[in-house]
Amino acid sequence: MSLEFWQSPNFPGLESLNQLLLWTRQRGDVPLLCAKRNGIWVSLTARQFYNRVRAVAAGLQALGLRPGDRVAILSENRPEWMVSDFACLALGLVDVPVYPTLPADQVAFLLRHAGVRLALVSSAGQADKVESQWPSLPDLSYLCVFDDNAQPAPLPGRPPARLAWSSLEQHPPIAAAGFDARLSATRPETVATLLYTSGTTGIPKGVPLTHRNLCACLNYAAVGFDFGPGDVRLSFLPISHITERHLNYGDQMFGMLTCYAESLEKVADNLLETRPTVIASVPRIYEKVAAGVRAQAAAASPLKRRLFAWALETGRKLAPYRLGDRPGPPPWGLRLRSRLAGRLVYRRLRQRLGGRLRVAIAGGAPLGRELAEYLLHLGLVVDEGYGLTETSPVIAVNKPGARRPGSVGRPLPNLQLRFREDGELLVKGATVFAGYYRNPQETADVLEDGWFATGDIGHLDAEGFLYITDRKKDLLKTSGGKFIAPQPIENRLKASSYIAEAVVVGDGRQYASVLLTPNFAALEAWARAQGWAWNSRAELCARPETRNLYAAEVEKINSTLARFETLKRFTLLSGDFTLEDGEITPTIKVRRRRVAEKYRAQIDAMYPAE
Q1: Which of 33, 111, 221, 520 has the fewest other C-beta atoms within 10 Å?
Q2: How confident is the model at residue 282 (pLDDT cuts 50, 70, 90)?
Q3: How far is CA 161 from each of CA 34, 81, 151, 171, rounded to the nearest angstrom?
Q4: How distant, in Å, are the alpha carbons of 304, 365, 411 from that of 240?
Q5: Which residues lie below 8 Å from residue 404, measured CB to CB, with a gap of 6+?
């Protein structure tokens, strides 16, 4: 398959991800992936990538792995992640991405449930997680660490299974002719990957996605963005997440260079170093950008603040032209103001993002109309999209010529949408998965005649733009795009003798927090033992010693949670939830929406930076 054929209008679209590797080979010595090594950005060319994939595939084959076997990838973003992925795809293995931030017991659950035979991990720290759970992983035969200087110790209970990545990667490659024939023969219905996502109960659910699922999304999601060779994208969302995985495939599809950020903490520096033309992020990154601009403006002199306000007003008037709502260029006077505002104000924002950014995409959580419009008025158009793991992932996305701030864009043309009476969105099409792995009940709950129930409430406007307005389920989603199942955390908190009720909050927020109601019998007994006297429960709850008691209880639970689940703040309420106030049902279940409404001020106080 030639590059010219790939780019021609007669190309029917991807049928398997392995076609990407065949095309990658055609690109020769063009840089494909880029990562920092010992303080220096080092590129991996398309030819090198293809050869490394062939070598690793040979190494995996030599281990006795066969089509359908599961291989876990537990790693931060780096070239080895994608090399491993494509080596598995080439052999018909099913890779199982695992978030590198998960604690050991959650990692073990995924590996055990998926029946993983080989775990590819990035570092000694990740290897330690697997080793600590080794006795509970009977299917796991091999452990390989990308960092050769961080090999794990011999594993107890079974024959040593240590593998050096260098020896795996330096295995004599599979002959190119036979390898390419194998890639070409990949059947679209073959399962490519098994991703895990948490449900409302907090129990992870496996989502098998086929080559057809993933390619059906790739063939349509980016149409209209005009991506191509010369574009550079900085990758900082975890590849373990379906969105970033999709973006990596898209980069290869359009001949772009993917640069892997060192970490989220280093994104600001890496933006300046790589000067990307494209970024895709959860809203939290854009929130930080906006907050930085606001803080800078607030600290400026009165004259500069007036200049900033003038630039924002100029941006507001330019917005219809930037969105494509008004045909043709802006009036010459507005264009002149735009150039001046660009030099004096907008340029600073562009410089923070590397100075070359032309496409910014948001996904993973609601961006919010206010933030989208604020950035738009500063000259940064952020195209928000929407999707789920089960839909491979994109359902809808804003793009050039079809944008509406506050919406998630128009649905992909190869999908059908409909809504239940309560507004829940249902989706059907080639991107929709066939059912959860080893979980028929959960599958039956969300799939009927090919229609997938998203759990999100939304509607289409008269122009076909999709708006997501609410979540049907209790699952929380932070502004960083992380899903948090509140019930398991709440149940652990309520195991404390001092806590009667707990409600975890944080949907659309930067982090999770919790409202607590005390078990007053236990609290008051503890207070009397300290020799205290108090006039009201509110007074007792307000004492610093009481807060320290509950802070210790919360910290006990935090130590058992993944980093993104930890409760950063808590509020101790001085009364119980009652049936009369509508906070609980007759069966003593908390009505979350009512609690959120009644205690809005207390919840907002736990997010002072927003």
Answers
A1: 520
A2: confident
A3: 30, 20, 11, 17
A4: 43, 16, 24
A5: 323, 398, 461, 463, 465
Pairing of strands 204-210, 191-198: antiparallel
Question: Which of these, 206, 154, 178, lies nearest to 61 by C-alpha position?
Answer: 178
Dist CA 108 CA 129 (whole Å): 8
**CATH numbers and ranges of domains, the chain:** 3-186 (3.40.50.12780), 283-471 (3.40.50.12780), 485-605 (3.30.300.30)
What are the start-end ranges of the H helices in 103-143?
A: 104-114, 124-132
Taking the C-alpha atoms of residue 372 and residue 350, their distance in angstroms, rounded to an integer, is 16
Question: Backbone phi, then psi, for 430, in 5-degree steps?
Answer: -70, -20
E strands, 472-610, in order: 476-477, 483-484, 499-505, 512-518, 567-572
Task: Answer yes or no: is pLDDT of 11 > 50.
Answer: yes
- Whole-number Å distance between alpha carbons of 596 and 599: 5
Alpha-helix residue ranges (DSSP H) falling in 391-482: 440-446
Instruction: Please give the Cα distance from 83 to 435 (Å, whole number).
Output: 27
Of all residues in the chain, what percent carry a pLDDT higher than 90?
A: 66
Q: Are 358 and 276 in contact (CB under 8 A)?
A: no
pLDDT value at residue 9 = 55
Tens of pLDDT, residue by residue over 422-481, are: 889 999 999 999 999 999 999 999 999 999 999 988 999 999 999 987 777 777 888 888
Provide the 8-state DSSP code for 510: S
Q: Which two tokens mark 60?
A: 């995996």
Closest CA to 367 of 386, 350, 354, 353: 386
Tokens 């590059």 identify what position? 3
Closest CA to 129 of 110, 148, 149: 110
**The model's pTM:** 0.82
Which pair of tokens denotes residue 225? Answer: 């963005």
Q: Quick one: pLDDT at residue 198?
A: 65
Sequence-distant (6+) residues with CB within 8 A of 84 are: 56, 71, 73, 95, 120
User: And the tokens for 431?
Assistant: 């991107």
Amino acid (1-letter code) at residue 51 = N
Distance (Å, whole) CA 374 – CA 379: 9
Using DSSP's 3-state secondary structure scheme, residue 570 falls into strand
Q: Are 252 and 32 in contact (CB under 8 A)?
A: yes
Find out whether 353 and 359 touch, Cβ atoms under 8 Å. Answer: no
pLDDT of the residue at 200: 37
CB 282 within 8 A of CB 481: yes
Q: Provide the pLDDT confidence category of residue 160 given band limits of 50, 70 and 90.
A: very low
**pLDDT digits 0-9 by tens, 371-392:** 888 899 999 999 999 999 999 9
